[in-house]
TrEMBL record, chain A:
Biological function: The proteasome is a multicatalytic proteinase complex which is characterized by its ability to cleave peptides with Arg, Phe, Tyr, Leu, and Glu adjacent to the leaving group at neutral or slightly basic pH. The proteasome has an ATP-dependent proteolytic activity. This subunit is involved in antigen processing to generate class I binding peptides.
PROSITE patterns: PROTEASOME_BETA_2
A GO term, aspect molecular function: threonine-type endopeptidase activity
Protein's recorded name: proteasome endopeptidase complex
GO biological process: proteolysis involved in protein catabolic process
Cellular component GO terms, alphabetical: cytoplasm; nucleus; proteasome core complex, beta-subunit complex
Annotated localization: Nucleus
Automatic annotation (TrEMBL), chain B:
Gene3D superfamilies for the chain: Glutamine Phosphoribosylpyrophosphate, subunit 1, domain 1
Record-given protein name: Proteasome endopeptidase complex
A Pfam cross-reference name: Proteasome
InterPro entries reported in the protein's UniProt record: Ntn_hydrolases_N, Proteasome_sua/b, Proteasome_suB-type
Superkingdom as given in the UniProt entry: Eukaryota
Natural source organism: Gasterosteus aculeatus aculeatus (three-spined stickleback)
Length: 217, 214
């Protein structure tokens, strides 16, 4: 496998990872795996949580260099709470995504981190935004990211339907993460999922041995 | 499979293949675009090459390399089959591919899937990726578009499907990959190989299943 090209040029601890978010009827599911590795050779953490809460009903998934991603989310959390105090209202999901976008775009030379932002707000309901490496911002009903995402593009394209029920969406997200973790060597561990609806937020953790198994395992 | 080498000047063939092993018959499926980086040299290439009556191969990587290897193996296998006076085994064909791909691994860029039917083991699929490994698998995908459909194939393939289910699965998988991979596209070519012979079909672009919701 020497001739295989290395996707990530990240040095240090990276979240070679699989992250995803999908909207369903009334809410949004955001999830990730839990592995952090160094150069794809050593697993430095088996249980890291890449789903970060940036406000009451807005969560963010990080991919890329762990150091960069943590620094950016910390700054974003601060900006967002300040913004929400000024506006005297909970921030919009797009506001959270824009904060991340500004940080990623203005520091694009130094940073190597991508994000998926998902949440619920009163104006537009459940939304998902993706801010990849260069600092673009795009809203989509479903999105996947990280190194493991390449293996599940086909699955997500085929299986995702708009306006699924909460259970269907949760199962879809768990399956997608399990499939990606099964093929990508730098994704693994447990599946962290967060379900965000108008009424609140629920964390679901699926340990490795409870993940769905597929025919070749 | 991706590679770090700069492609030699010439056509680079990239696409997704997924022969699926199924008792007793075996659909082979390929999409059809042959590209020279940004230029599509041929949008209806046939990457499913017959090696013998009931043995086919799917070619990915450099078109020139894979055509040359396939020609050599067709000759070697034909000769071997005449010597034995019986139809050759799929495993033999796969080993001939492996021998060429491994010996000349430094010069070649060829990822090949060998699939067929023989009397000894029925329907079989062998994977000979870049580098010249050989492994038998019930289902295999290859080419630049294959990364996008690993998840789909893992979740949807079940052992002992019927021929029609298998054809549907392979066509769906190749369509999904064609949608995401810039180097794959055009038409979908399918071949189903069984004891009774080979059945080939083509699915045109406008007849493909559509998946995009966003």
């Amino acid at each position: 496998m020497e001739k295989r090209s290395v996707d990530s040029r990240v040095r240090g601890v990276s979240t070679g990872t699989t992250i995803l978010a999908a909207t369903f009827d009334g809410g949004v599911v955001i999830g990730s795996d839990s592995r952090a590795s160094i150069g794809g050779e050593y697993v430095s953490s088996k249980t890291i949580n890449k789903v970060v809460q940036v406000h009451d009903q807005i969560f963010c998934c990080m991919a890329g260099s762990l150091a960069d991603a943590q620094a950016v989310t910390k700054a974003a959390k601060f900006h967002l709470s300040f913004h929400s105090v000024q506006m005297e209202t909970p921030p919009l999901v797009i506001a959270a995504a824009s904060v991340l976008q500004e940080l990623c775009y203005n520091n694009k030379e130094e940073l190597q981190a991508g994000f998926i932002t998902a949440g619920w707000d009163r104006k537009k309901g459940p939304q998902v935004y993706v801010v990849p490496l260069g600092g673009m911002l795009v809203g989509q009903p479903v999105t996947i990211g990280g190194s493991g995402s390449t293996y599940i593009y086909g699955y997500v394209d085929a299986k995702y339907k708009p306006n699924m029920s909460r259970e269907e969406c949760l199962q879809f997200a768990t399956n997608a993460l399990a499939l990606a973790m099964g093929r990508d060597n730098v994704s693994g561990g447990v599946a962290h999922l967060v379900v965000i609806t108008e009424t609140g937020v629920e964390h679901v953790v699926v340990p490795g041995n409870k993940l769905p198994k597929f025919h070749n395992e | 499979m991706e590679q770090t080498r700069v492609p030699p000047p010439g056509k680079r063939l990239k696409r997704v293949v997924s022969p699926v092993s199924l008792y007793p018959s075996k659909p082979l499926c390929l999409s059809d675009r042959l590209s020279l980086r940004a230029y599509i040299a041929n949008r209806v290439t046939d990457k499913l090459t017959p090696i013998h009556d009931r043995i086919f191969c799917c070619r990915s990587g450099s078109a020139a390399d894979t055509q040359a290897i396939a020609d050599v193996v067709t000759y070697q296998l034909g000769f071997h089959s005449i010597e034995l006076d019986e139809p050759p085994l799929v495993e033999t064909a796969a080993n001939l591919f492996r021998a060429s791909c491994y010996r000349y691994r430094e010069e070649l860029t060829a990822g090949i899937l060998v699939a067929g039917w023989d009397r000894r083991k029925g329907g079989q699929v062998y994977c000979v990726p870049i580098g010249g490994m050989l492994v038998r698998q019930p289902v295999s995908v290859g080419g630049s578009g294959s990364s996008y459909i690993y998840g789909f194939m893992d979740s949807n393939y079940k052992p002992n499907m019927t021929k029609d289910q298998c054809l549907e699965l392979t066509a769906a998988a190749v369509s999904l990959a064609m949608e995401r991979d810039g180097s794959s596209g055009g038409v979908v070519r399918l071949a189903s190989i069984s004891k009774d012979g080979v059945e080939r079909r083509v699915i045109l672009g406008n007849q493909l299943p559509k998946y995009s919701t966003h």
